[in-house]
Design a protein that fits this description.
311 residues, alpha+beta, Beta-Lactamase, 2 domains, five-stranded antiparallel beta sheet
């Protein structure tokens, strides 16, 4: 599922969880909106509710024209200086009406807390007439969110620096030290991935270095310069490990991917591979080119479409 679809699913879940409670509050707010004296009571009502609401940073009420009726009310104080300000330019203002009473904004960084925040807005209605809006700024870190699996099994192309792209044909590949020993590098990379407990490996061909991640220490990466990555002595650092059953990439596919990296490194003097990565656990290949563009795609897609896309 794409990132945008996962975000929409999360917002749908939050809307379902929150809308009922905000509907009740908006109905209660209607009782305080008919006079100045009632507005003081509205501030007290909102303040009382803020003590019970574990998700909210701030709440306030607008009239139907977008003018703020209540104070800004947080858990500690009632800030009356904000009463009367025109908030009709807020993004949510045109999305809320009597037949669509609830709106959940996109996430944003709060100017007050400097943390991720999301606004929930509920219409305050009398019958089918919009009277105002109840707004809550909610702390995203405290909301009960769905546990969702963020997939990485789709092709993604990311364009790089426009300046680098515009000068692509004014530059030529310069043979790096790693290029001169690329077969040795790939043989050792195969050994690391297939036999020695490395699950993610990234080869920086232009700068002649490698970064690797191991099963035993997945939160830390290891950096190896060329002298280390071309020496079989590096294998003494990584004890023999069984190839993981959970791997999405076969050992034969590891060899095929590295063979294609070799081809892409030398395929053209202008457009060529600068870095290539392989993760055998999530089955993804990462490619960075001389044009500063990047591709991320599943190993199976990379191997099946290599001739069509990259040659």
């Amino acid at each position: 599922m794409q990132i945008s679809a996962l975000i929409n699913k999360q917002k749908d879940f939050l809307s379902y969880e929150l809308e009922g409670g905000f509907r009740q509050l908006s109905e209660q707010c209607l009782n305080y909106m008919d006079s100045t004296s009632s507005l003081n009571n509205l501030n007290d009502f909102l303040f009382e509710h803020m003590q019970k609401c574990k998700y909210a940073n701030l709440t306030y009420v607008l009239n139907r024209s977008g003018v703020q009726l209540s104070a800004n009310v947080d858990k500690d104080k009632i800030l009356i200086d904000f009463q009367g300000q025109d908030l009709s330019n807020r993004p949510f203002f045109n999305f809320v009406h009597h037949d669509r009473p609830f709106y959940l904004s996109d996430a944003y960084i709060s100017s007050t807390t400097l943390k991720p925040c999301i606004s929930a807005v509920h219409a305050i209605c009398h019958g089918d007439k919009l009277i105002g809006m109840l707004v809550f700024d909610l702390d995203l870190e405290k909301l009960p969110l769905l546990e969702q699996k963020i997939g990485s099994d789709e092709f993604r192309q990311i364009k790089g620096d426009p300046e680098i792209r515009s000068n692509l044909f004014n530059q030529n590949r310069v043979q790096s030290a790693m290029d001169q020993s690329i077969d040795t590098v790939h043989n050792i990379a195969t050994e690391l991935l297939c036999e020695l407990g490395v699950f993610h490996l990234k080869l920086h061909y232009a700068s002649s270095r490698a970064t690797i991640w191991t099963y035993d220490d997945p939160y830390n990466y290891r950096l190896h310069i060329l002298d280390e990555i071309i020496s079989p002595n590096i294998c003494l650092l990584y004890p023999k490990k069984s190839y993981p059953k959970e791997a999405k990439v076969s050992q034969e596919q590891v060899k095929q991917v590295l063979k294609h990296f070799h081809t892409m490194r030398f395929m053209d003097d202008n457009l060529y591979l600068k870095t290539g990565s392989l993760n055998i656990m999530n089955g993804m290949v990462g490619l960075s080119f001389s044009c500063d563009g990047n591709h991320y795609l599943p190993v199976t897609q990379f191997l099946e479409n290599f001739e069509k896309i990259y040659t």
